[in-house]
Design brief:
The complex is a heterodimer of chains A (447) and B (592). Chain A is 71% helix and 3% strand. Chain A has 447 residues and is an all-alpha fold. The termini of chain B are far apart. The chains are: A mainly alpha (447), B alpha+beta (592). The interface between A and B is large, with 49 and 38 residues.
């Protein structure tokens, strides 16, 4: 009898630490936003939208907490269909803003379905992974998950929104990892993807850093490869030779490795190289500039490095205590770009200093810790996977956004959830946190 | 199915990665906001603020009596700095032409040239206040236009000691590259010559300015504050403005108007005057017109320290001192002068073709009889004369501090010839005895010789700064006197030389330098010049009766002819100025 835990009261079921962390982030975010947007001409519109979204978000949080989350697993197919329809409708009838067809207008309200689709995809994938729990280690599971995610991701990519698509990959990996997928398989698949994506990065790096490399140096070889043709063929042959050599080495060392691996590895590398070439050719000019601004900020490409430099100056000049709300010269005088949206963390850094940044970071870690705690305590595997996916996604957004503001990562154009200005993102994030709170509240099977 | 432990392990690993990422971001923030905060703050300040600089007053230069030789005057200037923006030049030119009442085409041409050469250009200066305020609105509209209150260098005496004081000018490209790290701006002026150049570091103040806040588009938001300027250190010279002015004006009034005059205090080596003609007005070089229209060839060559001439008869006191002190000639001993001197098959003439008859030492020097010195020189020998002239400092730079263009001249004698690998002949000794041949000296060297003759052998390195007084409380820099060497000779030999020099002025060739009530001693010289008219020389020193000499001068008038007629009056004017005689005093203080 003593082993059976009694369910706490209604108030005790809610994770108040999670609520407090989210609330704290919202408060800091709102202050920073009001300060940063105060110099923009659409100040009142930002103000109104933000507080309307805050109200809707609070309602979404409460709603998601109200009923049993398992209904999402039951309605998984419907959710998937909803996500697909939303994305298709957006692509067909969406509103174009800054080159992205990502807005949908319904009854006078504009919202970005891509944000909702991402969240729905996590719920759907959690269901898929839960259903395939018995065959979780097989390659087919991995490929199924990718196949389920691909349509939504490709539709987001069509908007086109590369950053959002890419930022979903870590969330996907986090979910697969926590579900217990085979790590070598994951490494192979995602490594291939990374290689395909790393190639353009490498070309960009070489062409920015060593524009006039000596003809036979390694950078020159890489640059030549980027021009496809014979050089690419030579590189593929090089991969094959390296594979053969590794096979000889493995047999000599009497390692128990399947010979197939030595055929597959060069093939995969070559394939990723070729797809990398294809991706590089399709990158938009500003995307290429962002790469260059990141890998070689001193070579300013059409002012892309300007944003990174201004953001770093804003963060650094805040010092320990910050320069005070409405007093940061970088944000108030317009040196900081996108200061109430993507670069809001730099605004926090400038006006609230290290103390403010630490508070944001600390609250975020508390939030993530509570999501992880909810995953630990979840009554079923589905809830566990949803929490793991959400934690991975939020952590990924945090890392990419803050990393961008402090100059560690390339400019990605991703918002910082709960802090940046953005109505849809705020509502969806609060709704997702509602689901986490739901999972936490219903941690006892008795309920 | 996986066990719960495995599942938990995966989750904990994920959490570990998240926590590590958070910690990494935290460390990066600490690095940026705590360790490097100061440099980022500086960058933010640079971002938002724009300076309108105000040139600080440069240190003043005073003469020994506290007379202002160089100071600063306030001036408003309209400048165009093309590195800040180069579009809309035509519109700007039109607007400026309307405000200033000038031709827009001309202004546009100036602006375009400034933009092409990336050099700052001053469009107008000495602006009246209403124009200044109307123009100040243009700054917000046209980036690159600046209005500045400057402390402009001003020389109250104008054309006065210009080679010595120097002048201010724009930096050329090479100077700009070398100085940009030391707080100089593209439109800064630097000392280009003389003291202005040598004491650039001491005279230069720290510029102040108006700090303004601008936004990312460069629009003026507000004035953040002013940075007060700090004036440069003042220079106190040993120069005597009255002597200098007398020298400048007297030299200018000579027939050719070209020459040099140097005055030294024989008691302590103080430089009292350093004049070189032709000169220039340093104020004229500071006007905007001079800055935009390329200044033609300046008479930058300083005859006083860089011009080398044969000393002519002014060298005779050294020959005489050598012969008398080494007992090669007795003072009472006479030589007969028929107007020429035969050496072998060659005839050496005396300047007085009629001849002086029988001359002893005193008459020989006072009348500057060449034949007397041919004889005395042959007795003494070339080597001895060379030794004495070296002791007086000839043939090597005096070393006037910082003046790099000073020339050493050329020592003439058997040793110098030997070093050059050629032989010495008796004919050379004769030429040397009357200060001709290959002997070359500067007026500065001759002034040092005159001072040494006055003080019986102390060879000074003249000093010209008595002290540098810093505005920021740094201890003053004081320059002390320096002795280059000493000419060793008996008192009787000095007596003879000085008596002969006094006689030369009172009743000899140097009567033009006579000043009633003062004891003046001197020696004329007429240096033969193969390129034209002879150069006129005069060296002298003067004292109140019974006192040590207070001034020694050397005057050279290029192609002036006879030293006694042309150069001696210049020396007289300088001596009169030194002793406060009513003479030409610079009418300073007015418009320069």
């Amino acid at each position: 009898m003593t082993l059976i835990r009694t369910s706490p009261g209604r108030a005790g079921r809610v994770d108040w630490a999670l609520v407090a962390a989210a609330g704290g982030l919202l408060v800091i975010g709102s202050l920073a936003m009001l300060s940063a947007a105060s110099t923009t001409p659409y100040y009142s519109s930002v103000f109104r939208t933000h507080f309307v979204a805050l109200g809707i978000g609070a309602a979404a949080f409460t709603l998601m907490l109200a009923f049993n989350y398992q209904i999402f697993q039951d309605q998984s197919r419907a959710l998937y269909a909803l996500a697909l329809v939303l994305m298709v409708v957006t692509l067909l009838f969406g509103h174009v803003s800054r080159g992205h067809r990502s807005w949908l207008r319904v009854m006078g309200f504009g919202f970005q379905p891509g944000e909702l689709a991402r969240m729905l995809l996590i719920l759907v994938l959690a269901d898929v992974l839960d259903r395939r729990a018995r065959r979780i280690e097989s390659l087919s599971t991995l490929l199924t998950v990718l196949a389920v995610a691909a349509p939504i991701l490709i539709l987001i990519l069509r908007q086109p929104d590369l950053s959002t698509t890419l930022s979903f990959v870590p969330a996907l990996m986090g979910m697969l990892f926590c579900a217990g997928a085979d790590v070598p398989q994951m490494l192979a698949v995602f490594g291939c993807g990374a290689a395909a994506f790393g190639m353009p990065l490498l070309y960009t790096f070489c062409s920015a850093r060593f524009p006039d490399a000596a003809p036979h140096s390694l950078p020159a070889l890489v640059l030549a490869t980027s021009k496809s043709g014979w050089a690419a063929l030579w590189t593929i042959l090089l991969f094959a030779a390296a594979g053969a050599l590794a096979w000889r080495l493995a047999t000599w060392l009497r390692l128990q490795v399947k010979p197939l691996a030595f055929v597959v590895a060069p093939l995969l590398l070559s394939a990723s190289l070729l797809s990398g070439l294809a991706i590089y050719g399709r990158l938009k000019g500003y995307q290429r500039d962002r790469f260059v601004a990141w890998v070689a900020p001193e070579t300013d490409v059409q002012g892309a490095a300007y944003n990174v430099i201004q953001s770093r100056i804003a963060v650094g000049s805040g010092g320990l205590w910050g320069r005070g709300l409405f007093s940061g010269t970088q944000s108030q005088l317009g040196f900081l770009p996108e200061r109430h949206t993507d670069f809001i963390f730099a605004g926090v850094g400038e006006e609230m200093g290290f103390v403010g940044c630490s508070l944001v970071l600390g609250l975020y870690m508390l939030l993530l810790w509570r999501i992880v705690a909810a995953a630990r305590l979840a009554r079923d595997r589905y809830g566990y996977l949803v929490c793991a996916g959400l934690a991975s996604m939020l952590a990924c957004h945090l890392a990419l956004n803050v990393g961008m503001c402090v100059g560690l990562l390339p400019v990605a154009g991703l918002p910082l959830p709960l802090v940046s200005y953005g109505g849809t993102n705020l509502v969806v994030t609060l709704g997702a946190l509602g689901i986490v709170a739901n999972i936490y509240a219903r941690r006892y099977a008795l309920l | 199915m996986r066990s719960g432990v495995e599942r938990r392990g995966r989750l904990e690993a994920l959490w570990l990665v998240i926590a590590a990422g958070g910690a990494a971001l935290g460390l990066r923030l600490a690095q940026m906001q705590i360790l490097d905060a100061a440099s980022y703050r500086e960058a933010a300040e640079r971002n938002r603020s724009q300076m309108i600089y105000q040139t600080a007053p440069r240190g003043r230069i005073y003469d020994r009596h506290g007379e202002l030789l160089a100071t600063s005057a306030p001036a408003f200037s309209l400048v165009f700095l093309p590195h800040r923006g180069r579009t809309g030049l035509a519109a700007l030119a039109g607007e400026l032409a309307r405000q200033l009442g000038r031709d827009p085409e001309e202004i546009l041409k100036t602006l375009q040239e400034a933009a092409r050469e990336e050099s700052a250009v001053t469009l107008a200066d000495n602006l009246p206040a209403p124009v200044f305020f109307r123009l100040s609105e243009l700054k917000a509209l046209y980036p690159g236009v600046d209005l500045i209150l400057e402390a402009r260098r001003y020389y109250p005496f104008g054309r006065f000691s210009s080679h010595f004081l120097g002048y201010m000018g724009r930096m050329n490209r090479r100077e700009w590259r070398a100085l940009r790290s030391q707080g100089y701006r593209l439109d800064s002026r630097v000392g280009k010559l003389g003291l202005e150049k040598i004491f650039e570091g001491e005279l230069r103040g720290r510029d102040g300015g108006l700090r303004m806040e601008v936004d990312a588009q460069g629009r003026l938001k507000r004035i953040l504050g002013t940075l007060p300027w700090r004036p440069g250190g003042d220079l106190r010279l040993t120069l005597d403005a009255r002597v200098q002015a007398a020298a400048d004006e007297a030299l200018r009034a000579t027939g050719t108007g070209r020459g040099a005059a140097v005055a030294i205090d024989p008691r302590n080596g103080d430089l009292l005057a350093l004049s070189s003609q032709p000169d220039f007005d340093p104020n004229a070089l500071l006007s905007a017109a001079a800055a935009s229209a390329r200044v033609g060839a300046l008479p930058e060559f300083d005859n006083a320290i860089s011009g080398t001439y044969p000393p002519g008869s002014t060298f005779k006191p050294i020959v005489g001192l050598a012969a008398l002190n080494e007992r090669r000639v007795r003072p009472q001993e006479s030589f007969y002068c028929p107007g020429s001197f035969r050496l072998g098959v060659r005839t050496f003439l005396c300047w007085e073709h009629k001849g002086h008859g029988s001359v002893s030492w005193l008459e020989g020097l006072a009348k500057s009889c060449d034949v007397y010195f041919y004889n005395a020189g042959l007795r003494a020998g070339g080597a001895l004369i060379e030794r004495y002239s070296r002791a007086f400092g000839l043939g090597s730079r005096v070393g006037l501090g910082g003046f790099s263009t000073e020339r050493p001249g050329n020592l003439f004698g058997p040793q110098a010839r030997g070093l050059a690998g050629r032989g010495w002949h008796r004919g050379d000794t004769l030429n040397l005895s009357i200060g001709q041949g290959e002997l070359l000296v500067t007026p500065l060297q001759m002034a040092v010789v005159a001072a040494s003759l006055a003080n019986r052998g102390t060879v000074w390195r003249p000093r010209y700064t008595s002290r540098v007084v810093y505005a920021d409380g740094r201890p003053d820099y004081v320059q002390g006197p320096e002795i280059l060497g000493r000419v060793q000779a008996d008192g009787s030999a000095w007596d003879q030389v000085q008596r002969a020099l006094e006689l030369a002025v009172s009743s000899g060739t140097g009567m033009g330098a006579r000043v009633p009530g003062l004891s003046v001693a001197g020696k004329t010289g007429t240096a033969q010049n193969p390129f034209g008219e002879d150069h006129a020389w005069f060296i002298a020193y003067a004292a109140r009766p019974g006192e040590p000499a207070a001034i020694a001068v050397a005057v050279l008038v290029e192609n002036g002819g006879h030293g006694g007629a042309v150069a001696a009056p210049v020396a007289r004017r300088m001596i009169e100025a030194r002793f406060g005689r009513p003479g030409p005093f610079p009418s300073g203080g007015g418009a320069g």
